[in-house]
Amino acid sequence: MGKKVYALIKSRNKPRLELFSHRIINWQQQHGRHGLPWQGADVYRVWLSEIMLQQTQVVTVIPYFLRFVARFPTIADLAADSEDSVLAHWSGLGYYSRARNLHRTAQLIMQRHDGKFPQQFEDILALPGIGRSTAAAISALAFHERCAILDGNVKRVLARYYAIEGYTGEKKIEAQLWQQAEALLPKGDVAVYTQGLMDLGAMICTRSKPQCPLCPLHADCAAYQNERVAQLPTPRPRKVLPEKHNTFLLLLNGSDILLEKRPGNGIWGGLWCPPQVDPKLLKTVEDADAYCFKHFGTETIHTIALSTFTHTFTHFKLHITPLLLQVINKPKQIQKPGSVWLNVDDALQAAIPKPVRKLLQDVQARLT
Hints:
Elements: H1 3-12, H2 16-31, H3 43-52, H4 58-71, H5 75-80, H6 83-90, H7 97-112, H8 121-125, H9 132-143, H10 152-161, H11 171-183, H12 190-203, H13 222-225, E1 243-253, E2 256-261, E3 272-273, E4 276-277, H14 285-296, E5 300-305, E6 309-312, E7 317-327, E8 339-343, H15 344-347, H16 354-367
Parallel strand pairs: 1-7
Antiparallel strand pairs: 1-2, 1-4, 2-3, 2-8, 5-7, 6-7
């Protein structure tokens, strides 16, 4: 038997799992994403990028990542700074518990690991804000450890490749996907393979309009071969989101605005927001003026009701009605810990959530 024929037969007899990983690795090297600012970097930047990329696309993350590492170039710098500063540099990226966990983790690394990011998978997994897939990604990309990941992109790739029915967030389906992800791990080039899986899900095997003919797996992808790509993975069961209402009081004294720090738990924990009031208490402009005098000890010069808008969270919709109140002075009783008067320009640089940024930009435009 000639060498070429023997090699062909050997190739055809390769286990399907081995072919899967080889295809991913080869595709990534030729067509995957290269030159991302955290690729080939130290573990701090890999960790930071993995946290930022949770629920957020690469194109959104890159400018935040660059600003963040410019301000906090090392774990020691991140640990030494204040939570307010960290949240301010995260402001606009959303899911703020990620930033609080980053800060807390940096401090734990300084205290418990002598300032060095731990290399053992179990030690990484024990850090705040790091789940199984994130710990595996850090291990594979930074330390070249043989660990399987299963983020949203990878779930979609595997669900289509194996035609796995059921919502991928369901425990039984997720366990099945984890089993496949572990079985597919190559013996070498784990970092390239891991990056390739993420790239494939983000660039080719996308949620809508996937580019199946360009996919290195399409020849034996069960969803593609059976024309079921559009049906898989099974969509998340639809739920009607609860709706909540809130009134934001934009108290202005000249060009200074009053902000209050949100409690550490709950939405926008640790961020600065205008005072918030149950809208049932403020049915008229006169009610708002009376509320301002009673709770803040200052009289209003004039009050303007701004347009109500909606901000959607993962689990509910929040309808926000802003009231712009010019007040005659800054009463001493609200100059206390957890509240601050800031020039609107300075307030825009503080740790504020996205809807508050939108409101302050509107106020800023009114003041110019």
